[in-house]
Structures are given as C-alpha cells and as structure tokens.
Amino acid sequence: MQKSHKVLWDKCLTLIRQNVTEQIYKTWFKPIVFESYDEQQKTVLVQVPSPYIYEYLEQYYVRLMAWALNNSFTENVRLQYRLVVDRENGKTQTVEGNRPNTVEDPQPATRANLSPTVLDAAPQQLNPQLDPKKTFESFIEGDSNKLPRTVGITIAQHPGKSTFNPFFVFGPSGCGKTHLINAIGVECKRLYPRLRVLYVSARLFQVQYTDAVRQNTTNDFINFYQTIDVLIVDDIQEWANSPKTLDTFFHIFDHLFRLGKQIILASDRPPVDLDGVKDRLLTRFSCGLIAELEKPNVQLCVDILNAKCRRDGLMLSAEVIMFIAQTANGSVRDLEGVVNSLIAYSIVYNSPIDLHLAERIIKRAVKVDNHPLTIDDIVEKVCNHYGVSQQNVFSKSRKHDYVQARQISMYLAQKHTKMPASRIGQLIGGRDHSTVLHSCSTVEQRLKIDKAFAEELNSIEQSFKLKQ
Question: How far apart are CA 110 and CA 316, in angstroms?
C-alpha cells in the first residue's frame, strides 16, 4: 500500500514541478523524502534535511503544496514534517504543517509570483571584486587541500544547488584560503556570467555597514547584499565581538540561504572557536560543509614552486626549490615572497640563484621566530666566537683556528639542519661529503673527552637559542 502512496507523492511533486522553476524545484522540493501516508488521519509524513527548508516551504509554498496534495491524495490532507535536527547523531523532530485558508489552482500567469527568486530581468552590472589570477588552475592540489578544492569545484559548477551551502573553509594564515574562495568565484562567473557574484573581506563589509549606519542607509545596505547570488566573505573572524555587524549579517545570510543562494565563508578558525558569535549564526555556519585547509607539506610546496617557475619562466635548481620548500614554514605567501626576493637580488647584484643566496633571502623573507637555522647563521656564530672571518673558514688554509671553526660549523650544521653532508660541504668552502663526515667525527670524539670544549660548544649553541 505504501508503494501506491509513493506514486501519489510522486504525482504531487510533478504538479509542483510544473508550477515552479527548475532551480526552485531542485533546491526546495527534490530533497524532500516521502515516508508514509496515514489514510485514517489523512496525513502525509515527509522528511526534510533541515529546519530551514521546512521554514522556507511553510513561508512561501504552503498553498501550492496543499493544492498539489489535494489533487494527488484527497481533499483536506495534512502534511507532517520530520526535520533532521542533528545529522551526526541521527536526531529528528516531527512537526505539523500549516493548512492555508484557501487552496487555489495556481494559474500560469501568476506562477512568477510563487517565489521571490524568480527574476527574469537582466541583472545589474556588479564588480565581483575577484582576482582573475587566483583560479583553480593556479591552485595546486595536494593532500592538505584536496577535499576543499574538490568541493570548491563542485560549488562553482552548481552554485546554491549542492548540499555544500554554506561552505565554511578555515585554516592558518598562508594556507591558501583566499585563493580557494576566490577561485570558486572566478569559476562561477565564467560558467554563469549572469550571476551576481561578490567577494568581500569581513573588514570591508564592516566598514560599509558602519558607513550605512552613519548615513542612515542601513536598509539599502541590507537590500543590496540580499540581491547577491554567490556571496564570498573572507576573514570573518574579524567580526568577533562586533554584535551589530553580526546581527546584520545574520539577516542577510538567512535571506540568501532561504532563497537557495550560495554562501562561502573563510576564517582562520572553525565556527566553534569564533568568539562573540551567537548560536543562531553558528548553527547556520555549520549546516552546510566545514572544511579545513592545512598548511602545505614539503611536497606540495615543491609542486607550488615548480608551478610558479613554469608560469613565470624562472630557472631554479631542484636543490634550491627543495631548500625553500623545507624552510618556508608551510606558507604559500612565504614561498612567493622568497622567490620574488631571489629574482630581485639576482637581477640587482647579477648573481646566480644558488643555495647560498636562498639562505640569505630566507633570513629576510621568513619570520625570524619561525625559520629554521641556516648555514649562514651557524658559521656567523662560530666565527664570532673564535674571532675568525667566514672567508678564513671557507678557505683552504690548515691553520688550527680556521680548521677548528670549520669543523665545528660542519658539526653544528649536520646537527641542527636537515641538509645532507654533501650540501653542507658545498656551502662551507666547497668541500665534499667525506670532509664533513670526518669533521663531525672529530668533534664528537673531542666532546667525549674534553669537558671544557663541550661547554664551549654549548655556549655557541646557546647563542643562537636552540633547544638542546
């Protein structure tokens, strides 16, 4: 019997589909799942994936659904909703649908009035504020960003029609959040030129809102944002403890969400860690998809650098690329900054882009508290301690003071950097790896029998503040 009732429900959906646009049908009616029909109570029970869909259906389509149910089942049939209120734990809530005072056959001439989302007029020109260079093609895929990137492409291809709405992406600075959300906007605009796509930083949104309050144009401000088809907001953590801005955004968010518009948000932390944001907004942030962008690992950094070299026509050795990838703190911004600095130094000083130049640039381009120790750091401290010059250490001289400083530099470089012996030798006077291994062995043997020497070495290490 339930099978025949399912057929009646399908007929109901067909009638609804004939009276709304295809986009509206897919957004609001296709997700409804028929569960059962109680003939005695004349009640149709359906499941909807969220309370927001229920609220929207009851606000805009209660008469249309009542008409379709009357024509498919019987007159005066009632609708019950089973709302999914907690997907993770499978919790649902059953609520009664409202009965309209009148149930009329919708006429074709009035169908456009059934939904506030049916807009046939050409959209006004709007600058989307997107960076055309930040695309999916230039967003290199890796283990740390595969899921967010894949979801981003899906959203761009079907804005507002997937379950990934809103799309909330978070991660540390420099991991590529801005690039990703910008790429979604660029692709949306390419595939759907008529859509009103807008990228805005949270700070600019707040400035605009403050100006609107000052000029008594708050309603115009809200009305403008409620016309957007794809709204992209970056760095929303900056709204922490800004209740008026958050309240205003809540109304914009709620309006766009109910109309099936796509919302994309980026933050440096997940929704649960956003201070000062009320639960009603946090639950809306969390009802779509929350995706984390992690810092790129070394391999992804290498891939990003290789892609940048191909794009900009640069020639960097695999050795230099690997060194930059290992020392740039997993930050895409740091990677780009180091490469740009390398190019500038190479041109101005007419010097090759080699490992030694890369070490010097890393010290200036990457935050000192975060960047790993370099050969230059080590040699400089050792030379200062023994009162010799770097030129003396790099020379072929066998003078005792020079040899000792050279051997200690090689030992500390092997201990505190990730460089192989061959690279250490190359950077300290062009020696081979056997010289480095011999120097390390000599220092280790002396440490075992010479307490004063061990204390001296410890003093050097303390000077560049390394944890032993």
Answer: 65
Tokens 């909703």 label which residue? 81
The residue ranges of DSSP E strands in 235-312, in sequence order, are: 262-267, 289-292
N-to-C CA span, the chain: 76
> Token pair for residue 194?
């008529």
Return d(Cα 159, Cα 164) in angstroms, integer. 9
Distance CA 437, CA 421 (A): 7
Q: Compute CA 27 distance to the chain's CA centroid, rounded to the nearest angstrom.
A: 25
Is 454 in a helix, a strand, or coil?
A: helix
Question: What's the whole-model pTM score?
Answer: 0.52
| 155 closest CA partner among 147, 146, 164 | 164
Angle at 371 between CA 367 and CA 376, to 5 degrees: 110
Tokens representing 26? 């897919």
Helix (H, G, I), strand (E, B) or coil at 199: strand
pLDDT tens, 159-211?
Answer: 887 778 889 998 887 788 899 999 999 999 999 988 999 999 988 898 888 88
Positions of the chain with pLDDT lower than 70, given as ranges = 1-3, 52, 85-89, 100-125, 312-313, 328-330, 346, 349, 351, 360-373, 418, 464-468
Query: Kind of pairing, strands 230-234 and 262-267?
Result: parallel
